Fold these 3 entries.
Entry 1:
Amino acid sequence: MPNPTSKLTWCKARLGEDMNWWIKEISDPVHWDVDGLGVIDPRQFQHILDLIEPLSDYGLQTDIVEEAFYSFGIDEIEEDKTILLKRIKDSILDSDEQIFALPDVLDEEKGPYADFIDHITKLRIKLLNDLIDFSKSLTVEELEEEIRETQNADYMEGRASHFFNEISAILEYVPKGFELDEDEESTGPKSEDEVLEKDLADVDAGTEVEENIVADETMKWDEEEEEEDKYEETTSPPDEDAEDEKK
């Protein structure tokens, strides 16, 4: 049986009203259904990489990301603004080209893209449980349920779910009623060295404050001593010789 990926050499994409790119025609129509098939543009894919970066601290496997997408580059822009994309062999994570990423959805349930979605979903839940103090640990099922509800709403309203929206919804997911600071998300879990460094910084800060207090009180003691000296000078006993002359 011929390898279907060998027939995937080019595709044509159009810009939809939702400002997402959608496949219009493909070199392998036997294995690929272009109805509702989206492709992720370079700007969107860079945004995905930015969202994925914090997951590196939670066990992100880059090979799963690599295998989930086919790489395409712009070959030609046609008169109707349709773009002809040609398959390229560059790494989707390290390429210097403007990469269009087509998810590998030949097997929607067990294929590389399905593995990618499962992987980032689990890591996102792991990140959220680490950074937010939930009364009960968040589960993968809760996230997946919200994503399904959003997709079902799009379907009921006649909108196709774009891959970029699906991925970003997972990577930006925060349960209702909670917030996640960008600084916390980008920082990730702290190592023992980072914790120790912070503790040492706090100790140094405390020492500096204590030194300032001692200096201030010493200055106060000096002022009190000066005042006492002045008081002793003004209240010293009168000279006896001077008193005799007056008499």
Note: Residues 188-196, 213-221 have pLDDT under 50 and may be disordered.
Entry 2:
Amino acid sequence: MTMFTQYGPSEEGQWKDGDRERYGDACVDRLNRFAPNFKAPVAEREVLAPPDLERIYGLQGGSIFQGEQGMNQMAFMRPTPDLAQYATPVGGLYLCGAGTHPGGGVTAASGHNAAQRILKDRRKSRRPWKRRRSAG
């Protein structure tokens, strides 16, 4: 099982000795309140803080979402307004994943949205009479 929590301190110095284990205990205890007997069979665990995620996986600031999702990174602005609709200026190259709207997590929504864009573009390319003529 994986438990993911968000917004832990991102700097190594902000995690003192024992903080990871105390945090892990708090998370397991919290889940145990809603799923009684959850805690008893846990034989082993590993607590990875944001600095660990940065060191092990190269995730800047330990963010699995490829950057914080502030207001400047929502909807039509993720990852940038020019790239927010999954297509790139390189023909046939599309973006999806945590860096695209609606961001990371396990919903697969960005993959679904990118696939819909690809299908839309493929349908357009099969209808030459619908293509816009370039001004020239």
Note: The chain has two domains: 14-62, 71-129.
Entry 3:
Amino acid sequence: MNSLENPFVRTEILLGEDALKHLARSHVFVAGIGGVGGHVAENLARAGVGRLTLVDHDLVSPSNLNRQLVALHSTIGMPKVEVMAARIADIAPECQVTALRHFISHEDADALLEESGAGILADCIDAIACKASLIHAAQRLELAVYSSMGAGNRLDPGQVRLARLNQTHGCPLARELRGILRRAGASLSFWTVYSPETPRPPAPRELPGNGPAGRTKTVNGTISYMPAIFGTFLAGSILRYLLAGSPDSTN
């Protein structure tokens, strides 16, 4: 197959044919298709991951235009998972995508993960209680867990780093998540992308979110590149994990 026929020719040069075949057999569950999750999903698809389950309840809004891959003037009002699925189909048609417009809750986290058949969780959601429930469910099902901490209210790309949750510092979201998971008896030894940069203050009040009735959402300030960096870090970490299990791994 020549380079015009094989979109993964440059990846194959780097990784080898067997590693590409291994990625094609892999399945990742991406929770949250916003600023971070969109970049995770796209980078996994572009690398040759064969199956993705995308879950997000939200619609594209004008406020997403400053940072989210799914956000274009032409996609405003459309479900994020549907926009992302169509984008991946245009990039890597052979990637099997399941797009679920759904708000993940404590009650259905286990079922969603188990029914998906995925082997890895890429957690990119903001709601802290739902985040904790999803991570704990993934641990019970023995999925590998990769999770994004807070990218909002930050500007310094040089401070973004990878660490296990119990090794993070300076991130309020990570601190709160540690407390919830510790009380639930869950493991804190899973990989996260975070920044210890002191966050700038969010908007001074909470505004209604697009989730279930009564749910409020703190509005954080964001810049174009930070969610993209978090998402790229997370996708790269997941790919390195997958390649470590490849028969042709160079890791």
Note: The chain is about 35% helix and 15% strand.
